[in-house]
Amino acid sequence: MKHGFAIVDEKTVVLEEARVSITDLSFVYGPGIYETLKLRSGILYFLDEHFERLRKSAEIIGIAIDPSDEELRNRIHTLVDINRIRDANIRVVVLDDRKRGSRMYMFAEKIQNSRAQFQGFVNSRAVNKR
Fold it and tell me: CB atoms < 10 A from the CB of 113, how many?
């Protein structure tokens, strides 16, 4: 279930109002990148690694990401706080419109039974390493 608020660039908006027009060139033709972050029991995992990968991907395809890592961190924490979530997947999407620059969208998808899902993931990784 997607949760109630999103962040578009630096603005907090009601999720249902966060839109990308089908005529928006960044959506139709522009390159884009994304990262999916894991929030489990209120802890964001591997945040620095996600930021590094997001920036490397942006550099490879020529997208500018203006906010600093600290600003990205603040936006993500704002998203977590306003949605009052402790277990979710957080999607960060950056689309590029060569005329207007990049647009950043963040939203959270709350998950159920995250402890069991996470333990299953950990167990599957342990099995795959043998």
Answer: 10
50-83 confidence digits (pLDDT tens): 999 999 999 998 888 989 999 999 999 999 999 9
Give the separation between CA 86 and CA 72, rounded to whole angstroms. 18
Domain formed by 2-128, architecture: 2-Layer Sandwich (3.30)
Cα gap 110→78, rounded to integer Å: 15
- Beta carbons within 8 Å of 64's beta carbon, 6+ residues apart: 58, 96, 101, 102
Q: Which one-letter amino acid corresponds to residue 85?
A: I
Does residue 98 sit in helix, strand or coil? coil
CB of 93 closer than 8 Å to CB of 77: no
- Measured between its terminal Cα atoms, the distance across the chain in Å is 35
Instruction: Quote the mean pLDDT of the chain.
Output: 84
Give residue-wise pLDDT tens across range 19-35.
776 666 667 777 889 99
The pTM of this model reads: 0.77
Helix (H) or strand (E) holding 58: helix 47-61
